Amino acid sequence: MTQTSLTHPSGPAGGGSPLLAVNDLTVTFGKGAKAFTAVDRVSFEVHPGQTVGLVGESGCGKSVTSLAIMGLLPARGNTVSGEVLFDGEDLLRLRQDQLRDRRGRDLAMIFQDPLSSLNPVVPLGVQVAEVLQRHRGMGRTAAQKQATVLLEKVGIPDPTRRLREYPHQLSGGMRQRALIAMALACEPRLLIADEPTTALDVTIQAQILALLRELVTESGTALIMITHDLGVVAGLCDQVNVLYGGKVVERAERHDLFARPRHPYTGGLLASIPRLTEERGRRLDPVPGSVADNIPWEGGCAFAPRCSSEVAACRSTTPELVTDEDGPGEGRLLRCHHPLEENPLDDDRAPEQHEEHQP
C-alpha cells in the first residue's frame, strides 16, 4: 500500500467535478482537557447522481458529520474545521442566514426520527407548504396544491386529507414519507438521509429505499446515505466510507467492499449480518466489545482493542489512510496495519448474493 494525498476518486461516470467535497472535516466537542473529537479529518466526495454511504456503529461520527455539513451543530461548545465545498463554495464559511437560504433549496436532510422532526401541533400541510413558501416564493394556495402533489409523489394515499392531519395521526412510514416530501419540495441537488429506515418495518423500509433510488436515478440528485445497516448499503450505495472512532478506515466501491473487505472492522460488520443461507441455529460473529473500547488515534489504531488481526504496531503507531493496492477495485483507501487477506464470509455467504440484495 502507498500513502495517498487524500485525493478522491472520480464520479460515477469517471470524471467531472464533485457537487460536494468534504476535506479534513473535524468536529471537536468541548475545550481543553475535556475536549472530544467526534469527527477526525474526514474527507470524501459526492458527485451528481451518486449515492455515497457513511457506515459504522452508533458513535462513529456519521450523524455529526452530516450535521456539520448542514451547519446544524450548535454554535457554542464545539469547534468545526476543514472544508465543506458545495459547488465550490465553502459552507463552513457562510453566515447563518446564507446557510438557511441554502438548506431546503440546494441541500436537504431527512432525519432519523420523523416524529421528533415534525412539529406536533402544526398540520402536515402547513409544514410542507412552509418550505415551498420560504424557498420558492409560492403563495399559500399554490404551496398547498404543490404539497398535495409532493405527498402523492412519495406514495401517501389520500394526500388532501393527510395534509389536514397532525403528525401523530400518521403511521411511522407515512411520517417518514412526509419528511422526504419536505426534503424534495425544492428539488435539492444534495440530499442527506440519516438512517431514514431505522424505525420502520422491512416492507416500509424497502419502499422508502426504492423511493430514494428512484430520486437519484431520475433527477440526478446526489445522495449521502448514513446507516449502520449493510443491507441498505448493498441495495443503494455506489461508494462506501466505513467510519470508526471519527475517522474513515476504509473506502471502496460497493461491489469491491462486499467482494473483499480489507479492514477487520468492515469484515466484522459483514460477518455479523444474518443471512437466509445460514444454517438454522448457526451463531453470528459480532464484532467483540463496544465503541467505548477504543484507544486514542494519537497512540495507535482506535480499533485495536476489538481487533482479531492486531499486531504490535496497532498499539504504537497511528495507521494512515492510504491507497490499498492489494485490494480489488480502483481508488480504494484503507487505514490498517494488518489488513484482511481473505473474505471472512464463507462460500455459503457469497458476496455476489449479498451485493444484489434489495432491502
Automatic annotation (TrEMBL):
UniProt xrefs under SUPFAM superfamilies: P-loop containing nucleoside triphosphate hydrolases
InterPro entries named in the record: AAA+_ATPase, ABC_Ni/Peptide_Import, ABC_transporter-like_ATP-bd, ABC_transporter-like_CS, Oligopep_ABC_C, P-loop_NTPase
Superkingdom assignment: Bacteria
Keywords, in A-Z order: ATP-binding, Cell membrane, Membrane, Nucleotide-binding, Transport
Gene Ontology terms describing biological process: peptide transport
Keyword presence, Magnesium: no
Region entry Disordered, spans: 318-359
Gene3D superfamilies reported for this sequence: P-loop containing nucleotide triphosphate hydrolases (3.40.50.300)
Sequence ranges of Basic and acidic residues compositional bias: 338-359
Subcellular location: Cell membrane
Nucleus keyword on record: no
Domain ABC transporter: from-to ranges: 20-270
Membrane topology, as annotated: Peripheral membrane protein
Any one GO molecular-function label of the UniProt entry: ATP hydrolysis activity
NCBIfam families reported for this sequence: oligo_HPY
Stated family: Belongs to the ABC transporter superfamily.
Protein name stated in the entry: Dipeptide/oligopeptide/nickel ABC transporter ATP-binding protein
Species for this entry: Serinicoccus chungangensis
